[in-house]
Amino acid sequence: MTDAAVLDRPAVAIAEAQGVCAHCGSAAPRGNRFCCAGCAAAYDTIQRLGFGRYYRQRLLDPAVRAPRPEPAAARHDLGRHVAVQPDGTCALMLAVDGLQCGACVWLIESVLARDAAVVNGRVNLTTRRLRLVWRGGADEAARLVGAVEALGYRLVPFDAGALATAADRTARKLVRALGIAGFAAGNVMLLSIGEWAGLMQDMGPATRDLLHWVTALLALPAIALAGQPFFASAVAALRHGRTNMDVPISLGVVLVAGISLADTIADGTHTYYESALMLLFFLLVGRLLDHRARGRAREAAEQLLLLRTSDVTVQQADGRSVRRPPEQVAPGDRVLVAMGERIGVDGVVETGESPLDSSLVTGESLPTAARPGTRVFAGMLNLGGPLSVRATATGAGTVLAECVRLIEAAEARRGRFVVLADRVARAYVPAVHAAAFGTFVGWLVFGGATISQALLIASAVLIVTCPCALALAVPAVQVIASSRLFSAGILLKSPTALERLAQVDTVVFDKTGTLTEPLLVLEHATETPPEALRLAAGIAAASRHPLARALVAASGPTVATEGVTEHAGAGLSCPAPGGELRLGSRSFCGLPAAAAAGPELWLTRPGTPPVQFRFVERPRADAAPVLATLRAMGLAVQVLSGDRAEPVARLATELGIAEWQAAQSPVDKVATLTALAAAGKHVLMVGDGLNDGPALAAAWVSASPATAADISQTMADFVFQGSKLRPVVLALTTARQARNVIRQNLVLSLGYNALTVPLAIAGLVMPWLAAAAMSASSLLVISNSLRLHRAGAGR
Amino acid sequence: MIVILYLLAASLALGGGGLALFLWSLRSGQYEDLDGAAQRILFDDDD
């Protein structure tokens, strides 16, 4: 039996040498193996259970949250989501945050399997979800979830039914249709090649008819089953009086199958079953890839939102506290907001005094003070002591309701963006059917052909004009473009976003959290005496105030000092030999009041002069180069911010933006965007706060960073992860390239049609020629689309 | 000449069997988690 702990010593030694925590990989203070007690405990647990192999096999993914246990994290109300199954077991679905690779899946499943109560604990690595089934009642849930969270993963329960199972059903239907189409197409093509080869030699009519009947037997049920996605979509569009790309596809397939069947019954010479099936097969491949790509982006976006929702604590009349989702809170309920918790409802403060971070709601970068009687809104972060808030009735005055109203108005105004493919279909459908009908009539009247011969030639025309390549032209490019964006951390949520992005000529940014980093930064960090900084950071580690966090960030990995007391709205104090250490505002530290240039903290120690720390807002690391690139691309750039004029002006000058507006309420932002739209501009709006929601809906196309408020992420057309602005440039360039490739594809497919349609009308197209031409054109379009993939690889 | 009938029947039967297996694997949920399935073959559990 190997001593697992001995084998892991190299991994721990390496981590120690690099100065990172052996368990979670984040920075650890020098000389420590772990960054916190939680990680040390997790390491011990894993070793004790004999799963030390995990450290050797795991690959930490820098894009994923580090597996650092957070004991102070808000506990979710699990009981609500537990489902009791008919056989007496309980089931719970949880979203998992922190899965680095397959080793994490193994670890979680092995740890759960060790527990006697667990019947089945299975992690789905693709959707990042855990399905837990256990015996013993809903109360066991907390213990089991706690065991996994102690290892460093974050688990959030959700209702399995609430999330998009409709999309999963569609995917499953598409895969089934694809399997059937593939099986039938392959076999029918086999038989058809035999028939064509035979016809060129001396196959008798009896054998030919036999082959026709066998292929009919295979093809007709297959077309009926595999064509479902297209038939359903075509019928739905026709019912609304519109046509889309699926109408000519469905019509073509049905007509071809019908004509071939008629020919089979009449012992004719040519049938076209293989063409119909090949068409369905290629189209289903395209549709499935498209659906998969969109599904991944949508799932990732859902996952982001899922991991952010949290319940609020409601204090009932009898004094007990219960956690509930925000939508179940009634006006008049008392909600308790702990330190570091985000306020979940609109209301008025009843008791407690504390600074609030309202950057997500109003864009203000400095915390505002809240005391009894202050109105507060959902989305504000409580930085200081606990507050109790009485939820107000939802009325016309609440920020959220106003935002929702504005969003609805903007959506109605935007109207329907008609996708290019549908526009082409509208022109294409009548042209194709006119051509086929004209051929039929022409041959009958002028060519002197029999009805069945004319019908056959007309069906050949229908087949070669079948929009195989045309239908692939747009989806093929969209799939490749969105997968390229996905691997760069950009989630395209709307199917038409790529087309709209290509038309953008103006980019409007929000300031706080979008152009600037969400956290304030210590100014002149290199000029501060290092031991004062370290001392201050040690005290500041106990607080969640943004200035304290900025101090800790500037000082590097810090060990929190013991015995720190936080005084809400004023500062932190800590007893020290010789007196007291104080870190906080001017008045808290006993200094004479004076006008401060900006946000600042003072550190006072007995026996030494006080030290001042000043903080500024810093633009994102690549904001200046990104804006330069945007201007070089010929786009106009603007800043619209809810913050005061002074910080906005300073940032605009620093980044070289000529047009900026400050103190914008959500209504003002929408008005500016509407004015731009009226002037004929297509605007890309990039924003992150609650106050950007209506603007994001009113813009031509919108984007938001993954750190944004939930409502912004829901309204935005695409969400980008990471702390850089470069994804915006990448999305714009990809969209433009995609538009060019789509145009090339359309030219290619229409060109192919222009070549083959005259041949078909002249009656020169045989079934094998039709099938070969259709496959060749589809492959040509797909290969052209792949050029997009390679071209982007170098960027 | 009658051999073509045997061949047709045999190939359709085999093909049909393949299709049935595919539909079964789809229905039993084996396409739900392709990334996880790829990683699971690397787990080596001693028990």
Topology of this structure?
The complex is a heterodimer of chains A (795) and B (47).
Chain A: H1 4-18, H2 37-48, H3 53-57, E1 83-84, E2 90-97, H4 102-114, E3 118-124, E4 129-134, H5 140-149, E5 154-157, H6 165-200, H7 205-226, H8 228-239, H9 246-265, H10 273-306, E6 312-315, E7 321-324, E8 334-337, E9 347-351, E10 354-357, E11 368-370, E12 375-376, E13 381-382, E14 387-391, H11 399-414, H12 420-445, H13 451-464, H14 468-487, E15 490-492, H15 497-502, E16 506-509, H16 511-515, E17 516-522, H17 530-540, H18 546-555, E18 565-567, E19 571-576, E20 579-584, E21 600-605, E22 608-619, H19 623-632, E23 636-640, H20 645-655, E24 659-661, H21 666-678, E25 683-686, H22 693-698, E26 701-705, H23 710-715, E27 718-720, H24 726-761, H25 767-793
Helix pairs in contact in A: 6-7, 6-10, 7-9, 7-10, 8-9, 9-10, 9-13, 10-14, 10-25, 12-13, 13-24, 14-24, 14-25, 17-18, 24-25
Chain B: H1 3-27, H2 34-40
Report on the structure:
The complex is a heterodimer of chains A (795) and B (47). Chain A is built from 25 helices and 27 strands. In chain A, helix 10 (273-306) packs parallel to helix 14 (468-487). Chain B has 47 residues and is an all-alpha fold. In chain B, 68% of the residues lie in helices and 0% in strands. Chain B is built from two helices and no strands. Chain B has helices at 3-27, 34-40. The radius of gyration of chain B is 18 Å and the shape is elongated. The interface between A and B is medium-sized, with 25 and 22 residues.
